């Protein structure tokens, strides 16, 4: 328990310490965290701002990539942004791409607008110009043409426009100005429509493929030219129409003014209306001047535009794009017609102006005369008021008389003047005629010049048109000829190709055949070779196999032999081993088993069989004694034989026994005496023999010992009989076994075989 | 074993001698006691007789090998 408390205290102390340690870092951390917090907030702010800026920049760039217009705007507004964009996105998309489709699109809206225009304007003249004859003629023509097969080419569209213009120009009546007044707004509306159509075109097609762009370069050029032509044509047409309209307005104003003037001149209207007439006259005058000014301006503008258009046409002519020629031609025609119309209108205006001049002159003269008359009247009758309108009511008789006298005097004067005038009439007339002639001539010259020019232009245009037609016809013919030629060429090509194909096919076939033959022969050769090699290989293999089989067989035989030999050897070894099983005093195991085994193992071996059978029966059944036991036994035999050395057939009494015993005791001799090489008869003594045998057996030579023991006679012999037998047995068996083992070894070596 | 035969013979011989001696002695003693009024001469005689017989037996036994045995062949 104390330990527990102690442990608890330790733990608490450790905790305390650790806690303190923990608290410290916490505080530190806190401090760090606070510092870090402030730092992190600043960092957060910086990071947020960077993120925002980067995001804005990236967003701008991405959007610029998507919308080139935006990119153009930004490039315009922000300096050096174009460099940034170029770095980020690459060069801006070229604006030419958009122009490709614009003229096409322009044509269509223009067509549509011209159609609508035509329909509108044709409807309008049709509706309003019922009085004038040429209008219905032109209008239906225009109407006929408008709903006609939708004019797809610029030529027809401009022809339409020209038609409309001429239609407008040739209708002199009141409705015409109305229509002409409405036509410019209509045309401007149409132009605005065109312009409106342009923009969506631009927006709809911001980018184009590079290959398509490259392929359509020419088309773009000519379309651009056509577009420009169309544009300039449109603009010139517009301005011309405006000019014509203005001229017409001027014309009408002039006409109105002159009418009004004439009316004013006319003294049949009542005085009240005269003043209003004069006011109206003034208004008409101002109107006329304004109209004149406008007409002048419009004329200048139109002239400028026409010059532009001619310049454009020239430039387009110089660009030598063949397919644009009809368009150029059409543009030229339009130009010419516009000029013609303008000139006509101008001449009309001029004639009106001259008329007006005459009328004004007349009015001036009249006014002068009136003034003079007034003056005279005033001179004569000063008290009469200038307003001679009221004269008739308020004049007295004197006044009347004086007035009549003045009138008579005036009449006389005038008659005299008239007579003078009549007299000078001729001269005046001649002078006037001369003047007129001159003027006429000038006018004629001018007219002739202008007519000549016009006719020249007409001729030129006709010529060009004819040339164009001829060219077209020629081209068509050429095309047909070319087509024919192409057809002929294709036919020829086909024939030639057929022939060539045939030839080539034959050649190829031949080559193929030859190659096939080659390949076949090659293949046959190869197969033959293969077969040969295969056969060879097979034969070789077969031979080898046979050889191997033979070898194996022989080997088997040899193995068998070896095995047999081995077995024999083993069995012999076993036999040998069994010999070792002899104990000190008891014989070995019966060798029957081992010998039986040997006999089994070498069933086919005669030598071994003979040898095996040569083993004595006794050893087989009973076994043999080992040499050691025999040797041991020999000692006994020797002792005994020495003791009964004297005993034989003749001496075999007990006394002899005692004597022989005594002899053996008293005879001292060497126990072992080396036997001589040759036995002499005196060596046949028992003792000697025993000594020899002992020596031999001590040296391990059982055979010699047995030989010596065999030489014993008498009782010694009888005593040693068994031993001898045993020794003989052992020796025999050993001999056989040694022979067998030697044979087995010899056979085991594998090289020798018993014959 | 042939060598053992000699030993055996000798053992037999000795045994026989012992027996014969004992017997002779015994008989001698008996005879001496019974018939010859405790004279020593029957004992000796008996003993001698015994020994002699034993000797003779021994000898015969030992000689048995060399003794020729004959048989009268029957006349045909």
TrEMBL record, chain A:
<feature type="compositionally biased region" description="Basic and acidic residues">
    <location>
        <begin position="189"/>
        <end position="206"/>
    </location>
</feature>
<comment type="similarity">
    <text>Belongs to the MICOS complex subunit Mic60 family.</text>
</comment>
<keyword id="KW-0496">Mitochondrion</keyword>
<dbReference type="GO" id="GO:0061617">
    <property type="term" value="C:MICOS complex"/>
</dbReference>
<keyword id="KW-0175">Coiled coil</keyword>
<feature type="region of interest" description="Disordered">
    <location>
        <begin position="115"/>
        <end position="159"/>
    </location>
</feature>
<comment type="subunit">
    <text>Component of the mitochondrial contact site and cristae organizing system (MICOS) complex.</text>
</comment>
<comment type="function">
    <text>Component of the MICOS complex, a large protein complex of the mitochondrial inner membrane that plays crucial roles in the maintenance of crista junctions, inner membrane architecture, and formation of contact sites to the outer membrane.</text>
</comment>
<feature type="coiled-coil region">
    <location>
        <begin position="397"/>
        <end position="424"/>
    </location>
</feature>
<feature type="coiled-coil region">
    <location>
        <begin position="281"/>
        <end position="312"/>
    </location>
</feature>
<feature type="region of interest" description="Disordered">
    <location>
        <begin position="171"/>
        <end position="206"/>
    </location>
</feature>
<keyword id="KW-0812">Transmembrane</keyword>
<feature type="compositionally biased region" description="Low complexity">
    <location>
        <begin position="134"/>
        <end position="147"/>
    </location>
</feature>
<keyword id="KW-0472">Membrane</keyword>
<dbReference type="Pfam" id="PF09731">
    <property type="entry name" value="Mitofilin"/>
</dbReference>
<keyword id="KW-0999">Mitochondrion inner membrane</keyword>
<keyword id="KW-1133">Transmembrane helix</keyword>
<protein>
    <recommendedName>
        <fullName>MICOS complex subunit MIC60</fullName>
    </recommendedName>
</protein>
<dbReference type="GO" id="GO:0042407">
    <property type="term" value="P:cristae formation"/>
</dbReference>
<dbReference type="InterPro" id="IPR019133">
    <property type="entry name" value="MIC60"/>
</dbReference>
TrEMBL record, chain B:
<keyword id="KW-1133">Transmembrane helix</keyword>
<dbReference type="GO" id="GO:0061617">
    <property type="term" value="C:MICOS complex"/>
</dbReference>
<keyword id="KW-0812">Transmembrane</keyword>
<feature type="transmembrane region" description="Helical">
    <location>
        <begin position="12"/>
        <end position="35"/>
    </location>
</feature>
<dbReference type="Pfam" id="PF04418">
    <property type="entry name" value="DUF543"/>
</dbReference>
<dbReference type="InterPro" id="IPR007512">
    <property type="entry name" value="Mic10"/>
</dbReference>
<feature type="transmembrane region" description="Helical">
    <location>
        <begin position="41"/>
        <end position="58"/>
    </location>
</feature>
<comment type="subunit">
    <text>Component of the mitochondrial contact site and cristae organizing system (MICOS) complex.</text>
</comment>
<comment type="similarity">
    <text>Belongs to the MICOS complex subunit Mic10 family.</text>
</comment>
<keyword id="KW-0496">Mitochondrion</keyword>
<keyword id="KW-0999">Mitochondrion inner membrane</keyword>
<keyword id="KW-0472">Membrane</keyword>
<protein>
    <recommendedName>
        <fullName>MICOS complex subunit MIC10</fullName>
    </recommendedName>
</protein>
<comment type="function">
    <text>Component of the MICOS complex, a large protein complex of the mitochondrial inner membrane that plays crucial roles in the maintenance of crista junctions, inner membrane architecture, and formation of contact sites to the outer membrane.</text>
</comment>
